[in-house]
Amino acid sequence: MTYSQFEARWKPAGGAERANYSLFLQDLCDLIGVARPDPTTDNPAQDAYVLERAVYFQNRRNSIS
Hints:
mainly alpha, 2 helices
């Protein structure tokens, strides 16, 4: 993907950041020449490079619900 293609695809995108973020990041990876993130699994030890990774808090008193 070239910068011109990236810009043409994303310039008209509106304010739907949550709906578009994963596609945007995949296109950005293609643009800068890095691998796309891996699919998330049920094993956090394998999820080193994913879009959404589970976060577990050890001290629940200080976590935000």
